[in-house]
Amino acid sequence: MAVSASTGTHTGPSSNGPGTALPRFPEDFLWGVSTSAHQIEGAVDLRGRSVWDSFSATPGRVKDGSTADVACDHYHRYREDVALIRDLGVGAYRFSVSWPRVQPTGAGQVSERGLDFYDRLVDELCAAGVRPVPTLFHWDTPLVLEEAGGWRRRDMAERFAQYAAVVAERIGDRVPTWITLNEPAEHTLLGHALGEHAPGHRMLFDALPVAHHQLLAHGLAVQALRAAGAADIGIANSHGPTWAASDEPADREAADFYDLLLNRLFADPLLLGRYPDGIAELLDSPGLDADLKVISAPLDRYGVNYYQPTMVGAPGTGPGEFSGVPFPPELPFAPREIEGFPRTDFGWPVVPDAFAELLLDFRARYGDRLPPLLITENGCSYEGLDDQERIAFLDGHLRALHRALAAGVDVRGYFVWSLLDNFEWAEGYRRRFGLVHVDYDTLERTPKASYAWLRQALRDQKFSPSGD
Fold first, then answer.
1. Residue 183 designated active-site
2. Which stretches are tagged as biased composition: Polar residues (predicted)?
3. CB under 8 Å to 148, separation ≥6 — which residues?
4. Are residues 302 and 373 in contact, defined by beta-carbon separation less than 8 angstroms?
5. Which domains does the chain have, with CATH numbers?
6. Which stretch of DSSP H or E encloses residue 397?
């Protein structure tokens, strides 16, 4: 969500369009697609309940009134989906493991049926020549744990580490790369501070311990994965440049604070072993120094999810709304609309150059403390099978990524969000991020034009002359 608070002129999309071949990426560059369990698996009757089951059942929480009870029914159709991944030509599949499918109550008794599903999925991927990249937590907290306090409680971190050990014991022999958490910033902000996502708490700054407990859970999970023999571990954090609405001191101060909360609050402890100035005092957590040693254990990869930059100004001088999410006026910052760029069907500005800006700023900020990067999510929401806008989006962002690589940023892979249209959280089924269209009545999968474009682009990468 945020790396640098800046103002000035922000250039539009690159003039190189999707009609020209992509520049050449390194031969060992990892190409992949991403999904998450709650958004695609369905089979709600074969797992424990999660916070999203409860949230979606509450009228008004999900905009189209839908649930993920069936979603894409990936649980029963995973072989078909793995075939789509194989035929696309990518080398990796980033999926998430459903905690309540593995441990229906979040602790103690393990569901063998749940673990068997991930066993079958990993075997299918290996047979297809696709690297499995599981994410252990993508927001679907077991409901029993939430009812006991969830991520507001410190002991949640220990529960998570125990769950990580269970999963690693079952599938770790075939999994080369692990992701612990997905976007703890969004889970804290939208789920606990603003109440727009599950579990629906509106705690504002009282949600800061949720951030710390997730980071501690990550650190303890790294320990558990290492003990199980894992050698390639990372996290997936969301990041993007923060632009101040103007050079006015109030706007710059607001943008700096937003940048701190949505980026540095999550990256600094992981990469520098400390919280930004002022945050530790707000946390007031006993044993914080010892926790930070656990949180900052060395990582093999650092995952970056990028979608858009954010413009921020002082409160009370603009609408204070981001992607349809209203920001309370008592917050010391307010998002602003970014003008002059194309927009996705979600209303997000399409700014490929901000992607390169993010990566260059990130390297400048963290230097040699920064592990090799994986772009663990990048994508957009558009309707239709002939999704030329998505092709333009991917083309522009891959060119921006290549510019960052050429400038020396160590990026080892890129994952498109998402393989399939899916349940898009509080938006329900109103937004379509997939390379593959899903008919939610028949569950039929239909590859879109963007799927064909990416497949050909990857073939060109494999067979173009070296140095193109």
1. yes
2. 1-18
3. none
4. yes
5. 5-463 (3.20.20.80)
6. helix 388-406
